[in-house]
Amino acid sequence: YQFVLIFRKMLKTKKLMSFVGTPSKKIKLNDSSMSSSLEELDLKSLNKFSRQNAALGAETTAKLIKMKVLIVGLRGVGMETAKNLALQGAGAMTLIDTAVVVAKDVGVNFFLRESDIGRVRSEVVAPRLRELNPLCTVAIASALNDTVILNHSAIVITSALPLSELIEINEVCRKHSIPFFYAFTGGVCVNIFVDHGSNHVIHDPDGEKPIQKLISDITPLNSEECLVRYETPEGQIAMAINGGSFEISEVVGIESINNKIYPISHDYKEPVKTVRIPFRYSTELGHQYRFGGVMTEKKVPISYPMKSLAELLKNPGQLVSTDLLTFSEYQQHLAFFATLKFAESNKNKLPAANSKQEAAAVVQIAKDLLASKLVDVEGLEVDDAFVQKYALHAAVELQAMAAFVGGVLAQEVVKVTGKFTPIPGFFHFAAMEALPDEEEGTEVKDVAPRDSPQDELAAVYGWQFVQQLGDLRYFMVGCGALGCEFMKNFALNGVCCGPEGKLFVTDADRIELSNLTRQFLFREHNVGQPKSRAAAAMAQQMNPKFNVEAMELFVGAKSEDVFNDDFWGRLSGVCNALDNMEARIYVDTQCVKYEKSLLESGTMGPSGNVDTICPFKTRTYRDGGDAAEGGGVPMCTLRNFPHLTEHCIEWARDQFELLFVKLGPSCATCLSFLDDNDDGLAMFEQKIREKAASEAGAAFFDIRSVTSLAKVAASPSIGGAAQLAFDLFHFLFRDRILDLQAAFPANSRMVDPKTGQDKGPFWGEKKRYPTALEFNPKDESHVNFILASTCLFAVMIGLIPPKKEDDEFWLKDYRSHGFIVNIISGLTVPPYIRAPVSAEGMAEDETGPKQLGKDELEQTLLGLFVDLRANVESYRARRLASGLSRQFQPEPADFEKDDDLNFHISFVTSCANLRCDNYSLKRTDFHACKVIAGKIIAAIATTTAAVCGLVMLELFKLVLKKDTDAYMNRQIALAVNLLTSYTAEKPISFKTTTEIVPPNPQDPLPSEAFDAQGKILPEYLTTVVRRAYPEGHS
Hints:
Blueprint: H1 2-13, H2 35-38, H3 43-48, H4 50-56, H5 58-65, E1 68-72, H6 76-87, E2 92-96, H7 121-132, E3 137-140, H8 146-150, E4 154-157, H9 163-175, E5 180-186, E6 189-195, E7 201-202, E8 212-220, E9 226-231, E10 245-249, E11 260-263, E12 274-277, E13 294-297, E14 302-303, H10 309-314, H11 329-344, H12 356-371, H13 384-392, H14 399-414, E15 426-430, H15 455-461, H16 463-470, E16 473-477, H17 481-493, E17 502-506, H18 531-542, E18 548-551, H19 565-569, E19 573-576, H20 581-594, E20 597-604, E21 607-613, H21 635-639, H22 645-671, H23 680-692, H24 696-714, H25 718-743, E22 749-751, E23 758-761, H26 780-796, H27 817-824, H28 854-882, H29 904-918, H30 926-933, H31 941-960, E24 968-973, E25 978-983, E26 993-997, E27 1022-1026
Parallel strand pairs: 1-2, 1-4, 2-3, 4-5, 16-17, 16-19, 17-18, 19-20
Antiparallel strand pairs: 5-6, 6-15, 7-14, 8-9, 8-13, 9-12, 10-11, 10-13, 20-21, 21-24, 22-23, 24-25, 26-27
Helix pairs in contact: 4-5, 6-7, 6-14, 11-12, 11-13, 12-13, 14-31, 15-16, 17-18, 17-31, 22-23, 22-24, 22-29, 23-24, 24-25, 24-28, 25-26, 26-29, 29-30
């Protein structure tokens, strides 16, 4: 961490020089109060938290770094919460738990070992928690008092404190504006209470990307309002907007409307794709809409006052809906309150596990609470059976539920930052369908504790069930964020830990720095190691009996020699931990083929899903429907008509591939000459001519780029690489735009080629009229483009060695502003050569571009070939004279988004910004560009933990051989507190069918084949029976 420490010192002393071509080391926010916390987001942190920042934003991560969280209780829920907060960058945590470790703790707390039994919990876990995030300060407190509370920015209680004490602590927190969180889990039931205080403000309620719309017209409605018509940008899902706040910009003709935020509304009587805004549109004031305009959603702060624990115990108000089947949330609230009341009157002792007598006492307390109006919910009556089930396991902490709660609770702590909508008080969730089925007169036997890590599990499911889990043979595909959580959960629950059990896990990936914020089995010393092997080693520390075989293979047709019939046939089931649909579909197909159950899950930022597939009981994964496809951006939009910054970023990413991956091999074809008969140049010219027939503009660009690279290859130098970069600046941002202007002048009209009807101006909201750029050495993006391109070309032709991983000083001297500007001053501006514009992707009824004539195009092409041949001959002559290899062997770039110093994202950012300048679009920044160009999938530890906890419940059901109605498909959205569960669908069944097939129309029938009405007689029809065997099979 020497680099990090030096970096912080430089920030504090303000001695950090501004390097060209690298991301800003300190993010600037509008909120000046956050500037100190953002100093924590150094280069390494931004890389480490890149996936989290894609979900939460760098500003939220920066706030987390300044957060000090107090966690009381370190069994399952407390430890899971602490783990998730540490992974997400919490700056400091204080732990309180003076109880000593007992055997059952080892089965719910992943940081405890059997050798820790007898030691104080907090003292054992604190140093192990520090390993997850060395930049998080972890302290221990011996007691909970006001002094300790007031020293923290959030309080999390997961131990069963007396109810009166909980209410008292909550009041202290409210008085001092300290967010208060409480979680209680018993058996398969969960209760969470959240109180951010009376002054909480939400800055972003859902975390969704702001909606953008293109304005097509603005007309007055009345003296105070106007009507705005809009269109959806290319590549975005077309959806109506009818509320919220939007900023309007780039309108031409009503400039006073721009750069202001307006509340919008939509009346259903008004036309679709229109909204009202409060703006006085008046021709007397010179208002006359001409064209253009963008509406961008703005998330304005929302006041979100919350109520105290004492208030909401009596009446919880509108609860988060978690049970759409039996609507048990209020029943559970009553059971929760009654259980705490029972403990309060029994020396803070919860009802004993499986004690029907004490469970009956809780039922009676629940009735008393309703009778005395201590719980006052209209229409609520006690469901004796539900409350009794709740109380029977209220003292049992199942690891699966702890993992789920730890994810939800940690996400609630993150909401202290103002990101996402908090749980509005209480959150109650129950998975009663996961309990063993109770046939009449029977109950689970052999549940007594054995001083074992699985005591809690056995208390609910019995020791026979524990043994069944141990003897499972499971196949886990993938070992990233989901895989790490699954392996931890498997180890703690004793899955695959028995004499017959075994977990096969495979993942071909290796550990990267950005994995460490959500793949918690990995540490910094694991970077570069195989994921499957590192995870297996860590999980076996949690449970030495865990039998794991780690592999580094992809699962697919090419690995069926390893994952063969014998392998699949001996499995109990499969657990997916994948991140792509192709692999999911393949595994699903194999599970159907070999009749194996499949546990499927996935996450995207704060949202996740769980799907259970059981042979002959549920539908297959593929039968569940195709995943929604995102809207693609048409090629013509990217190539010629971008109207969003994101379009420019995608285009710039394509240019990286074109220039630093494909250009080198194309040039090598021209330059290399192994013998006198080897003429790659003629082959290249032939390809260019073929390409020019359909995409003349692209062909012109290819030949000019290859010519410029050949010139550098003939006499390699940094100056030559810079001239190549300078040429490309003008080819891309000057010449292409001048070509487009020549093809479609500013006054171009769209005319129907069939009718001649004028359909309006060619340029509009989705086709912005562009402006050609002139190089400006004072513009940072102009200079950064030249610097990044120069260095990447220099690496390609071997002038500079490629960057090595973790080399923080690679090309340090090249990054100074003076270095590159001095080189630029000696470069030559290339001449403009007009090229055709591709009409690909344009609508059939649009007027085509004004192109070069056939003779002019041929003459221009011949001139370009002459220039290319001259440079190729020069290269070959120099190689022969110097005795060097006749082959030109450029080194193609391998795009790496997670290295901020390799110039890859730097090139894409500067290239995108120059493209934005061409089309008068808002520029992007390095880190926003990194997320889009690097296709970084938003991922956070909290969602992963919650999803994997729910998957464990589905595994339990599979072992219990539950019926279809017990298996749950779940969708969670932690940002907005959605948890929907619906029963799995039964498999599609096939039945015997009979189909009447008419004769082939090509074979005429005789007249006697028809009756009086002209219908074909039955004997001339063919009956085809499609038989299902066995009848009704799935």
